[in-house]
Design goal:
There is one protein chain. The chain is an alpha+beta fold. The protein has one domain (about 5-85): Alpha-Beta Plaits. About 35% of the residues lie in helices and about 40% in strands. The chain has helices at about 15-25, 55-65, 65-75, and strands spanning about 5-10, 35-40, 45-55, 80-90. It starts with a strand and ends with a strand.
Length: about 90
């Protein structure tokens, strides 16, 4: 069963964040899932929404709890705690 992860967070500098995100997504690291899209809020371009698809709930949980993901987000300039929601196909 596929699982969709929706991640919302603020970034200090979108261009810097995007460079790190694109490089990380291209690595195809286990647990990163398949990137679907990146979106910016119209009223607040520092508010970013990222969507990834995972093959299983376990893979999505690994992604949402992985220490390396928190480290990458911090390095990329994510501000505050990201909001991560997991959805299964209905």
């Amino acid at each position: 069963m596929a699982v969709t992860a929706v991640v919302q967070h603020r970034v200090r500098d979108y261009a810097a964040w995007r460079e790190i995100y694109d490089g990380f997504a291209e690595l195809g690291e286990p647990g990163v899932g398949t990137p679907v899209g990146v979106y910016r809020a119209i009223q607040d371009p520092s508010n970013v929404l990222v969507i990834h698809i995972f093959e299983s709930p376990a893979d999505a949980e690994l992604f949402s709890q992985a220490a390396y993901m928190r480290e990458v987000m911090q390095l990329a300039g994510v501000e505050g705690q990201p909001r991560i929601e997991l959805y299964e196909d209905a």
